[in-house]
Amino acid sequence: MNKRPTRITIIGLGLIGGSLGLAIKKSVPSAVVTGYSRTASTTDRALRTGAIDIGTSTAEHSALKADIVFVCTPVRAVKDIFCTIAPALKRGCIVTDTASTKAEVMEWAVKYLPAHVNFIGGHPMAGKEVAGIDAAEATLFQNCVWCLTPSAETSLDSVKRLTTLLRKLGTRPLMIDPARHDLLVAGISHLPLILSSALVSCTTRSELWNEMARLASTGYRDVTRLASGDSRIYTDICLTNWQSITRWIDDFSKELQRFRRLVADGNEALCEAFSEAREARDKWLKSHRQ
Amino acid sequence: MNKRPTRITIIGLGLIGGSLGLAIKKSVPSAVVTGYSRTASTTDRALRTGAIDIGTSTAEHSALKADIVFVCTPVRAVKDIFCTIAPALKRGCIVTDTASTKAEVMEWAVKYLPAHVNFIGGHPMAGKEVAGIDAAEATLFQNCVWCLTPSAETSLDSVKRLTTLLRKLGTRPLMIDPARHDLLVAGISHLPLILSSALVSCTTRSELWNEMARLASTGYRDVTRLASGDSRIYTDICLTNWQSITRWIDDFSKELQRFRRLVADGNEALCEAFSEAREARDKWLKSHRQ
Description:
- 2 copies of one chain form a homodimer.
- Chain A is built from 12 helices and 8 strands.
- Chain A is of the alpha/beta class.
- The first copy, chain A, has an 8-stranded mixed beta sheet with strand order 3-2-1-4-5-6-7-8, with helices on both faces.
- In chain A, helix 4 (75-85) packs parallel to helix 5 and helix 7 packs across helix 11 (242-265).
- Chains A and B meet through helix 7, helix 8, helix 9, helix 10 and helix 11 of A and helix 7, helix 8, helix 9, helix 10 and helix 11 of B.
């Protein structure tokens, strides 16, 4: 019956917002996508690449009449965006986000969004270390798990509408508790980015770095890849998920000390530890990655 | 004057030995490459792929009449190979290796190789996490730095002959002191592989792993890539370079604790730490990587 095109708004047009726009325009061409970035040249670029159909000069304006609003800014900007768009949101509108931590975002939604909208926290498990609209790709979310954290107040119908859209984009929606989400991603996403960055500082701050730099190869490049990510986004993640992250740093430190002891002891138990890690990773690759 | 083809022997036909054979046959087609692996089926495979021209059933036999011998086994097998081939090596022959640590190998060469051969330690700064002859590629060493650790006794002429061959293969030979080499690679190569493996054990041993496994994505995959490497080779590396490696683990642990404090403190200094790491890595990528 309702044949009018879905009106989707994307606030924040970086790697994630830009890729989302491109994916929507590719998979749901009938949707009308409105976009807002605090940087006008980014909005222009999103218009030119076809990631959005309409650009607005304020976040509030972009949210008017929207059926679904995606907030795709770094975590700590989400709160301000909620406050700004709250008066503009129409009754029954779905609001979601793509930030890497969910517990605080859920609290902000309760506090700052009107009760007549449906908020569902979101987090696509995809990304790359290059930030910004120029790195956006329509296929970034292809086959990725997209975490969703609805609250008890969210209507089932709105969850269904959002998951239907996300499935059309080729993603795999997964319902999860926000606190649980934050604990899990602290281990498989936030801990790795801290290890990557700490490895870079530890080596590049050394007085041996100039000599080491010539020898560093693909192994160093890959383990440090996440260190080239957006420091603003990383900081926001850490500041909104510090409890889980410090817990994982402590677990990791214990594990590193175990490896240190095995290296210093110089016996065959070290080989078993390496084998065990290899088998666990290979098993994960086989069952969870394409 | 001397128009007879160079006779090159490769002992150990895994990823490195196999790739070396393919690279030599591609860049110096006139060379006659003899190969030995302790596994007969590996020798057969090397013959079929064209990585070697002749296969032998003993290491000693493979070294007879060789102008240059490459020992491409894991570090701790190098000593036995030296003892085995010593009686077969002809006067003036060049012996080199490709093991990831150099100080112990240099001592073994003095102890177990005859004085009438020229030993030059070697270590190509290339590799991948997949082991074995089936992963071998003619282009594996393309543009890679190839560390060489000649001793005071090595003739200059033999160093020149080896570097000429390595340049023909597209590599960049670099002379370096063995102990210095081991200290530097402990930071940019051995520390990363331990971090990678420790991250895998720390996460996969957790009672949360089944849930985390579904969410782990490209970031986790890349930071843990080295954990899929050959555990035998890794163990040999650690046992022959434990002093430098434990030193780097200690440096890294301090740096990780600095990040932990910044995360727990929750202030903007964390953003600076991430930015600094990003800039240092990007600078390295720009000046040292293609």
